Automatic annotation (TrEMBL):
Keywords from the named record: Membrane, Transmembrane, Transmembrane helix
Taxonomic lineage of the native organism: Archaea, Methanobacteriati, Methanobacteriota, Stenosarchaea group, Halobacteria
Name this protein carries in UniProt: Glycosyltransferase RgtA/B/C/D-like domain-containing protein
Transmembrane segments: 12-30, 36-59, 71-95, 101-119, 128-148, 182-200, 207-231, 251-276, 288-321, 341-358, 370-388, 408-429, 441-464, 470-488, 495-514
Keyword Transmembrane tagged: yes
The keyword Iron is annotated on this UniProt entry: no
């Protein structure tokens, strides 16, 4: 037993790499059963990362440093970033939207900031200056999207602001949403309502000035977290990676409770890491609970993600407390009191359970409702490789020469980050770095991946897997930066410089053009749906209710416009169904918009919840033999002729 423990203490990282290599080999054969993008790509990345770590573990090397560039580079790069950000504003003003040129230029500016972080001479390195540049870029990228889009970006914002927050404002009380689950998590809505009243602005402006501002600066906490693991320049690098992450940008545009929950979650991570690395006081433990309770009062899914993080911290603490994980390196210097930390985890868990039991939804409690949904999912749709909505991109249902490649372009940034995370996890497990905080981040990442990627493979999507990914980026970025930092010190200088340069060039641009970061105006607009609306489309929504001759019957249109009509217009709308020949089926009242002829509008196939992307002309959606009820130039409403 002692021999096994000694082996574990010396080579835990190598053993983990070997296990990862075996797992990658086994998972590789799943590609013969499914062509789903994660199944075909993740095993390869996992295997290559483990092989690279094993090579470095046995490679007789000397520690190296990245080269440093002189004063001229610092001055020129700072000036170039300033000019680049100003140029982004000019591009946006000229185009009136976030065009592909704007996004690619944003990626170039982000790459230049990453170069500054890594190659600036030590005497010229100013973390505060680089953080200011990252913040300025993030503000421009997000607020250009917010203010060049009529109304809101995304669908849920219309319900949260136009219905819930507006009702609270009119009633002056939470009683206005007493039958809604957010009555037990009203922090987001109350923040917008208070800002509306205090600032004397519209609710849209209040949302942008509060939650929008938070989502443009909150990632600065990543610097404080990463500083416990790496040097200042690499901590700045981590902030740069996180700020341009596709799902991070997504929740900076689609401003809903998930956004605020993500910001508060980052506070939980920071407070938790402080507990592990410092002589924690009652104030540090209280900070974990403070941010945790804030998450509970903001968003149910975010609270569940936070529970996974805190349970991961509890598991890590117990592994060290019972000597399952050997205390070496950092962990031998300062040990966390397991009783205090487990007490915090217990208090949070109880608070979450009580909150969920008091949360109303569909005439019952949130806990009961979720248990029923899980049971229904397991009974109806669960099954191995039951990949409902399996692709990360809506382009999976699109047709055209680029369609097979769009999902890979959309996921390129994630795949790069995943590779670094695997390698960084093995670095964290090295005996010289092993500590509760690192193990916590690794366990939390794996736990979140279970809900975001593994359960959907079995058809279980009850826990809204898409909402987990942005939270997962927090530990991934920190661990991934540790991995890249280790690579920079353990590989030959020429090779690592080339690798870092390529990574810094590719990663920001790949993330910023991905579908989740461009929901307002997708780069691949023929393949990826647009979750924003034009002035004409919004104007049509406001008049459809009054014009509709059958107010009790659903309206048929494309997705996501049908969701907009339901959320913003208050009238039930469903996707137009297609027949066996792929033609629209005439049913009752139908709405056509110009986007259906040129964008990635989706339609129902009649097979469960399956949808496909198609283009149709106005004449195909509203034939001449139908009654024309409404026409504003961009949107038509017609009905099947009767009698």
């Amino acid at each position: 037993m002692k021999h096994t423990h000694d082996l574990l203490s010396r080579q835990l990282d190598v053993l983990a790499a070997a296990v990862g290599l075996i797992l990658a080999f086994l998972l590789f054969f799943l590609r013969f059963y499914s062509s789903q993008i994660y199944i075909t790509t993740i095993p390869v990345l996992l295997g290559v990362a483990c092989l690279l770590y094993l090579f470095i573990a046995w490679y007789d090397r000397q520690e190296t440093e990245l080269p440093r560039l002189g004063v001229a580079f610092t001055k020129l790069s700072v000036a170039a970033v300033a000019v680049g950000i100003a140029g982004l504003l000019l591009i946006a003003l000229q185009a009136g939207t976030r065009t592909p040129l704007f996004l690619l230029s944003s990626g170039v500016v982000a790459s230049l900031i990453l170069f500054q972080a890594l190659f600036t001479d030590e005497a010229e390195f100013r973390p505060w200056l680089l953080l200011a540049e990252i913040t300025a870029l993030a503000v421009v990228v997000r607020f250009v999207g917010l203010y060049t889009t009529p109304g809101f970006i995304g669908i849920d914002s219309w319900t949260h602001i136009g219905e819930y927050a507006a009702s609270i404002l009119r009633a002056g009380s939470l009683s206005a949403i007493s039958d809604v689950k957010y009555v037990a998590a009203p922090l987001y809505h109350l923040l917008v309502v208070v800002a509306t009243e205090f600032l004397g602005v519209s609710m849209r402006q209040a949302l942008f000035l509060t939650v929008g501002t938070v989502m443009s600066v909150f990632f600065l906490l990543v610097y404080s977290i990463a500083r416990f693991f790496v040097t200042p320049r690499w901590a700045v690098f981590a902030v740069g990676l996180f700020a341009v992450g596709d799902h991070i940008v997504r929740w900076g545009l689609h401003l809903i409770p998930t956004s605020l929950g993500l910001a508060l979650f980052l506070g939980v991570v920071y407070a938790l890491v402080r507990v592990f690395h410092l002589d924690a006081t009652a104030r540090d433990y209280a900070a974990v609970l403070f941010f945790g309770i804030g998450v509970i009062l903001t968003h149910q899914v975010s609270a569940f993600v936070t529970l996974v993080l805190l349970l991961s911290a509890g598991v890590a603490t117990l592994l060290f407390a019972f000597d399952v994980m050997p205390r070496t390196g950092w962990s031998s210097v300062r040990a966390t009191d397991p009783k205090k930390l487990l007490g915090v985890v217990g208090v949070y868990t109880v608070a979450l359970a009580v909150n969920w039991m008091l949360t109303p939804i569909s005439g019952t409690s949130f806990v009961t409702r979720m248990l029923v949904l899980v049971q229904v999912t397991l009974a109806r749709s669960a099954g191995f490789l039951n990949l409902a909505g399996g692709s990360s991109s809506a382009a999976a249902g699109a047709q055209g020469p680029l369609a097979p490649y769009i999902p890979y372009i959309n996921e390129l940034g994630f795949f790069l980050l995943f590779f670094l995370t695997v390698f960084g996890s093995l670095v964290v497990l090295n005996r010289n770095r092993l500590r509760e905080s690192g193990v916590t981040l690794i366990v939390a990442t794996v736990g979140m991946m279970v809900f975001a990627y593994i359960l959907p493979v079995f058809g279980i999507r009850t826990f809204l897997p898409g909402r987990w990914i942005a939270f997962m980026y927090v530990p991934m970025v920190v661990i991934g930066t540790v991995g890249l930092y280790a690579l920079s010190r353990n590989l030959p200088s020429r090779g690592i410089v080339a690798a870092v340069v390529v990574f810094a060039l590719v990663f920001p641009g790949a993330m910023l053009v991905a579908d989740k970061a461009t929901i307002d105006d997708p780069v691949f607009d023929n393949y990826t749906p647009r979750y924003s609306n034009t002035e004409s489309e919004l104007a049509a929504i406001n008049t459809i209710q009054a014009t509709n001759p059958s107010p009790s019957a659903p309206i048929y249109t494309d997705h996501p416009y049908r969701a907009m009509i339901t959320r913003a217009g208050g009238h039930l709308a469903v996707p137009i169904e297609l027949n066996d020949r792929g033609e629209p089926v005439a049913q009752g009242v139908t709405v056509y918009r110009e986007y259906q002829s040129s964008g990635a509008s989706m339609y129902a196939t009649g097979e469960g919840d399956a949808v496909v992307i198609r283009d149709f002309s106005a004449r195909e959606i509203c034939p001449s033999d139908q009654n024309l009820l409404y026409d504003n130039g961009d949107v038509l409403m017609c009905s099947v002729a009767t009698g």
